[in-house]
Amino acid sequence: MLIVLLQLYWLSFGLIGLAVALTLRQVSKTRRSEFMHYLQTTHPVVRAVLVWTLGLLPFLPIAVPAYIFEWPLWSLKAEYLLLLIAALSVLAANRKPIMQKLHRPRYTRATFVLGLVLAATLLYDYLLALRIGAPLYGDAPVQLAKITFFQHVHFALADPYYSNHGVVDPRYSTNLLNALMAVAASLLHTTAAEVWKNSYGMYRLVIWLSMFGLLWTYLGKRYRYLAYVVTALLVIVWSGYFLFAVLPDRIVLAWAMLLLLGLKLWLETKSWPLLAIAAALVASTHTLFSLIVLGYLILTMGVLWLGRQVSFKQLLTPVLCVLVLALPVGLNLYYPNHANGDKALYTSGSLGATTPVPRHYGLFVISQLPAMPLLVIALSGLLIAYVWFADRQRNSRLRLFAYFAAFAGLALLFRANLLALVGYGLLIWQGKRWSLRIALSVLFCYAALLMYDPLFWRVAGGSVPPWFIARFQELNVFGMVGAMLGLLFLVEWPLRRWGYTRLSYSMLAVTMGLFVWYFTWPRTNDYNIATLQDKKNVQFAVNRQESLRALAQLAPQLQNQLVYSNDPNLNIRIPGVVPTNVYSMNPENESPVSNIHLRGQCTLQLAKSLKLADLQAAGITRIITDPPYSSAVTRLARTRPYLKLVARAGIYQVYTVRAATAYTHAADKCAIPHGE
Predict the structure, then answer these.
(1) Pairwise CA distance, residues 418 & 415, whole Å
(2) Sheet (strand 562-564) strand order
(3) What is residue 365's predicted lDDT score, i.e. its pLDDT?
(4) For residue 503, what are the contacts with CB-CB under 8 A and spacing of at least 6?
(5) How deeply is 95 buried, as exposed, middle or buried, from its count of CB atoms within 10 A (0-12, 13-18, 19+)?
(6) Which residue has the higher pLDDT, 526 or 15?
(7) CA atoms of 577 and 140, how far apart (whole Å)
(8) Rounded to an integer, what distance in angstroms lies between the CA atom of residue 249 and that of residue 247?
(9) pLDDT tens digit string along 283-295?
């Protein structure tokens, strides 16, 4: 029942968005706006994504100040309830005009079949995600700690746990969707972990539909059917890429797609609302991505202005978007805290792995080409040259023979980065205006310009974390589908040109099968598919559910405590159930500027002895044991007179650390200075 209610909660933002759209249409100045015209006449799937996005927009004026001024959760919860009631009233009053105004597109038989295939693929992915649930490892504990803190205490920019003591996380702070998950947890009387886990399907669906909308809009009428094909392939071969769809650095890619869609609409029709809305959502989701988009907009507008594609007056819209995107960056730089030095150390890349030389993480840049990719370039060039030559010949057999020979060569010597260039060329070619073609070219080169520009490396100090570079590449969301577009275009274009329509469909089906066969390794679906296939993983999912319920029963004993456990699964799950400070965390769950490494040394020492001196030096007040996993620590806890068993739930046991004599001399490894 909880899963159903949570899906209805997320769908309710679509109702709010539809009411917002109707309200905008009734305003006299927006009746003739290009944005409203586009919203009414575009593909129903694109319309659904945009309407759902509009439903999130009214929460920004409350959510952002709530983070900055640390308002309680009821401020956003009250807004949600009021907006939902108002939306239902607006929709009830306009139910007939809604159906009359909507544009009903006409479908050919081919697009209808492709639409059914895409719908089945998306439904399968959605139901599978609901069955499995979002993973709770990686960066999830940090996000869950934030959501739990919002639910039980108040909003805050800073990371409330893991000894950050007021230091703002330089990656994401004013995350709107985290705030809305806290609202859901409060309204449904459940935990942040349950909301996180069961929101997985909806978040993935938003990403897939956003990609479809982007492709449908950027591909001209001649190639729009590829939006169905490529999106379905994306769900299959890139499923594992959105394993952490709920994380801010994954869901933000959906807003990046809408931003590029808004950029196209602005350059072609001067309609600015969608561009501004997408910029606001990016700014409210991921701070680093705000910086990335900010840089892209500045670079693109500069190139367009110098190329006399836009006037100085027309730059007002992107300038306003830049100001919106600069807000979270400024908050992270200047928000008051007493550990700016440590934060500067983190953002400089001195903590963790760094890369001293430029390195590429995407599909676009080609460097040090081996011989085999050169053959792909040659075959692609020969294919294009042959199509030009064959247009002047009448020998159809010769045409088809050369075509299949070229196809076999492409299939055997497939190189994604090279075919992505063909896909990028197709997208640029489909652009109606030179300004849009320039904007796309800048997008494809954006990451390369930064990574290979000596000025950037000089400013960055010559050393930045690899994940930082990877994020700049990810703004080019076309990189996920560039190779697919390039391959499908090379397969389809000659046959269509020569009039072999049915054969082109057959070859597209063969190509899709080869693409899935080539890319579908276990690593691409290592969580969703493998979890269902492996009985151990299914049992793990069941155990996780039982674990979350047991931890919820222990909340009164764990709340607002410093908790120790040497079970890594517990260290991940506790922050999503109860507001507390978990002492021992895995390194991959490191929150910026936390003393995670010092804690790790102390954790190992505690597991050996559970000495009172170590516990007091670390400030630990509760110990939770898991006998099946940590039998040694459980036995130690039973033999220590200063530990008292205060609660049980399921297999877990909670001990409190009795305050003995004041400890004045810090133990060596557990003497972690509080306040760092």
Answers:
(1) 6
(2) 581-582, 562-564, 622-625, 652-657, 643-649
(3) 34
(4) 495
(5) exposed
(6) 15
(7) 12
(8) 6
(9) 888 888 888 898 8
